[in-house]
Amino acid sequence: MFRVLKFKRYNELTEATEKQTDANSKNNRNGVMHELLVGYHLHKPPRHMEKHPDVNGDSPQEAHDKLKAQMTPEEYAHAHKKAKQAAKDIHAQYKKNFPNHKFDSAHWSSKPGDMKRSTGIEASQKQDTSDIVMTSKKPDGSNHHQGVSLKNTTKGNVNVGASNHGVGTMHSKAGEHHEDHKNKISKIAPELHPDNAKKNGLGSAKARKEWMKHPDNAKKVAKIKEANGKSLVRHAESHAKELNDHLKSGDKDRINKVKQHIRDTLAAKKTPMEKEGHSNIKATTYMHKGEPKTYISHPGKDHEHIFDDPDFHHHIEIKHSGTGHSIHYKGKKIAKFTYKFNSQSDPRSSITAVGNTAHKMKNGEVVKD
């Protein structure tokens, strides 16, 4: 399984944001608010995005008002500042690329089917992860759409995560390795084996997390954490070796598997909207010396020169390090792929991996080639 990382959908967030239970819920809240406020500031004068008439649930303004109630005045003012800068930079990018187009409106694409409602083009949320769809008028009066995937970070760099992976887009032995790991956990703590857990009340993640906290289990927990670390390294080593073996083989089909891995890692794919002649960008808003900045990239275009390189297999390097590997093209690191467990506190957690860009930063800007 492969999916592009994005903020949790608003309708999945409501309970978490109301309770403000942890840092993740706060980050998700801030991410959704960023989407809503960027859409607000894209309009001149500023106004909230309109709700699709055939969709139940909160309108963008209603969602905004609920999330605003969970924020301090300072947090809300900061969110506005970042969103306003992002909207300004997105408009500047759009005007540069489409100087004869006139912006018309923006829609929030937070629910399944919103892409078709906004553009008339069928696209699942896996195929197109845009948070907002901008619509402009061409000189002939027809519509041009631009999908915008929004990333919002407090960090000073733009490498905030591009993709999230399950066993289906890991190495070929990933499922087997994880089964081995779960068996090791059962040997360390037999009470956690599924057959025993059903009888002793440790069948749920919540119960297992409480078990991990109990002082009587400290020695077993230490061994489990050690086993976790070794398992992640084993996955990373196996994956890097497999990819390098593909490259060395010279076989077209095997080399294409490496290309697909890089596409999956960087979410480097064209959306259905792009295939119909429209555009798509990723806008990452980050901080530099206390001020927001925006980096705009084109996932469906930026890396095509790499995939089209006839000497691709000679110019790509896969380097293992710790719990992951880095991907290098002509000596430059372009991506990272890191293994981890979905939960650090559940001893029977599933395995996952995160793909990321590897941009270098200098003076608050992405270093260009």
Structure description:
With 369 residues, the protein is of the alpha+beta class. The chain is 43% helix and 21% strand. The chain contains 13 helices and 13 strands. The longest helix has 32 residues, at 218-249. The radius of gyration is 23 Å and the shape is globular. The protein starts with a strand and ends with a strand.
In what range is the share of β-strand residues? 15-25%
Q: On the 0-100 scale, what is the average pLDDT?
A: 91
Question: How many helices?
Answer: 13
Number of strands: 13
Provide a concise account of the structure shown.
The chain has 369 residues and is of the alpha+beta class. The protein has 13 helices and 13 strands.
Structural key phrases:
369 residues, alpha+beta, six-stranded antiparallel β-sheet, five-stranded mixed β-sheet, 13 helices, 43% helix, disordered N terminus
Topology record:
Layout (H helix, E strand, L loop, with lengths): L1 E3 L5 H10 L3 H20 L17 H9 L4 H25 L4 E7 L5 H6 L12 E6 L5 E10 L10 E3 L8 H15 L5 H7 L4 H9 L4 H32 L2 H15 L5 H4 L3 E10 L2 E7 L6 H4 L4 H4 E6 L2 E6 L2 E10 L9 E7 L3 E2 L2 E2 L3
Parallel strand pairs: 4-6
Antiparallel strand pairs: 1-5, 2-3, 3-4, 5-11, 6-7, 8-9, 9-10, 10-11, 12-13
Helix pairs in contact: 1-2, 2-3, 2-4, 6-9, 9-10
